[in-house]
């Protein structure tokens, strides 16, 4: 197999794993929130608490994925992600009560924490430097693909939401088999006599930036469809179309690398957080307008996937000798923000209405602009270099790693 075809296959498989873990196993919970609220008699606080459990599991899984990738290689971490996504979605489909539902949501959420670091490491080790950022962005855009797929599946399964989750489980199982064939068992190589600092200078802004994105995005990911139904009065089909648009436009996140190379990380992050705030606020103030919600969903889908793509590029540059660790640290902070944001927004929804929760989330997105990367960020890469020039792997590892 040619090197280019090998890289393309890895990118496609990685995109698919992100699609089933993030788009189906994790974020489809928000799509089905109105149905689950009725099925299991859950209030806003309970819905938010279950979502928070998913994010906490994600945090733990990020740490596990970093350790697995370091010890056994990227393939092991990716396989763990696919297996967990399959188990979590199947458990949700079979849930007889809210307790089992919560356990399934937690397992499904853990799959995402296992996926991102291992795939970031595999791409950094296999894909040539000139194509690496683009490949990372394309893989990350799998979230949009998964969200896009979940909408039509939910419409086809109207009246039997469990059937949709069984379909998600089947898709996750198939992707896991593909991952086993194409992701190489490359390992992180930290043992070359060069220590990796726990918190290099770039993390001073990276970690709070990721956390604020998590806090802000928890509103739409957890309660986006719920507010459209319970406050906006949209029907099942119309509110699902809003979700489909969110995922479809989220695929634009595949162009994050190109946009960031032109605008720079600082401008890309700042503009993205302002647009994230605008989309979240629009959900709150124009809830009864389907056209406005479609615009808000499209804006949020593109911006959120783009911002997480920026975090991946930022994280791999902050830890050039350990890209899985860099992505893991960034996404750990992101998940901690979401874990805190989901129950807080749910509580605000119970006390003051979901609109208040969404406006608070929009304000948090504006605060996130303050943590944009500086113009002259330095990172540890065998000396101090500009962030925009740092390679994601040590010079001696620039050669391509063949798949096993």
CA(first)-CA(last) distance: 11 Å
Question: What is the mean predicted local confidence, pLDDT?
Answer: 83
Helix content: over 70%
Number of DSSP helical runs: 16
Radius of gyration: 20 Å
Shape: globular
Order of helices and strands: HHHHHHHHHHHHHHHHEE
Structural class by secondary-structure content: mainly alpha
Strand content is: under 5%
Main β sheet profile = 2 strands, antiparallel
Number of strands: 2
* Low-pLDDT residue spans: 188-193, 376-404
Biggest sheet strand order reads 1-2
Structure description:
This protein is mainly alpha-helical. The protein has 16 helices and two strands. Strands 1-2 form a two-stranded antiparallel sheet. The longest helix has 30 residues.
In short:
The chain has 404 residues and is mainly alpha-helical. Helix content is 76%, strand content 1%. It is built from 16 helices and two strands.
Keyword list:
404 residues; mainly alpha; two-stranded antiparallel ribbon; 2 strands; 1% strand; disordered C terminus
Helix/strand layout:
Layout: H1 3-26, H2 28-31, H3 33-39, H4 44-72, H5 74-94, H6 98-126, H7 129-140, H8 142-156, H9 161-182, H10 203-230, H11 236-250, H12 256-263, H13 265-285, H14 290-318, H15 323-352, H16 354-367, E1 378-380, E2 384-386
Antiparallel strand pairs: 1-2
Helix pairs in contact: 1-5, 1-6, 1-7, 1-8, 1-9, 4-5, 4-6, 4-15, 5-6, 5-9, 6-7, 6-15, 7-14, 8-9, 8-11, 10-11, 10-13, 10-14, 10-15, 10-16, 11-14, 12-13, 13-14, 13-16, 14-15, 15-16
């Amino acid at each position: 197999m040619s090197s280019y075809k090998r890289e393309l296959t890895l990118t496609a498989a990685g995109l698919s794993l992100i699609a089933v873990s993030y788009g189906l196993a994790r974020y489809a919970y928000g799509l089905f929130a109105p149905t689950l609220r009725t099925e299991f008699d859950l209030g806003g606080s309970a819905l938010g608490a279950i979502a928070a459990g998913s994010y906490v599991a994600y945090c733990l899984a990020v740490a596990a994925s970093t350790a697995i990738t370091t010890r056994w290689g990227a393939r092991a971490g990716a396989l763990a992600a696919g297996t967990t996504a399959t188990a979590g979605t199947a458990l949700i489909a079979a849930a007889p009560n809210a307790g089992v539902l919560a356990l399934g949501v937690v397992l499904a959420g853990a799959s995402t924490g296992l996926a991102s670091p291992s795939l970031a490491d595999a791409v950094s080790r296999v894909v040539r430097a000139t194509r690496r950022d683009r490949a990372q962005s394309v893989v990350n855009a799998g979230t949009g693909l998964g969200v896009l797929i979940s909408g039509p599946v939910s419409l086809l399964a109207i009246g039997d939401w469990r059937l949709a989750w069984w379909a998600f489980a089947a898709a996750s199982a198939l992707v896991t088999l593909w991952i086993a064939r194409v992701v190489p068992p490359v390992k992180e190589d930290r043992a070359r006599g060069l220590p990796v600092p726990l918190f290099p200078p770039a993390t001073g802004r990276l970690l709070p930036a990721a956390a604020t994105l998590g806090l802000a995005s928890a509103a739409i990911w957890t309660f986006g469809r719920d507010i459209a139904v319970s406050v906006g009065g949209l029907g099942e089909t119309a509110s699902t179309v809003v979700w489909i648009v969110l995922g479809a436009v989220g695929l634009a996140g595949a162009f994050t690398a190109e946009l960031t190379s032109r605008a720079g990380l600082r401008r890309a992050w700042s503009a993205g957080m302002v647009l994230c705030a605008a989309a979240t606020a629009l959900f709150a103030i124009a809830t009864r307008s389907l056209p406005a919600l479609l615009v808000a969903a499209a804006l949020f889908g593109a911006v959120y996937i783009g911002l997480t793509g920026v975090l991946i590029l930022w994280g791999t540059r902050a830890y050039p000798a350990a890209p899985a660790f860099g992505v893991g640290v960034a996404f750990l902070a992101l998940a901690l923000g979401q874990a805190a944001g989901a129950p807080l927004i749910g509580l605000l929804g119970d006390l003051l209405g979901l609109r208040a929760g969404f406006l608070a989330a929009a304000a948090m997105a504006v605060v996130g602009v303050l943590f944009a990367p500086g113009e002259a960020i330095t990172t540890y890469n065998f000396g101090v270099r500009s962030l925009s020039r740092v390679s994601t792997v040590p010079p001696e590892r620039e050669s391509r790693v063949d798949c096993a």
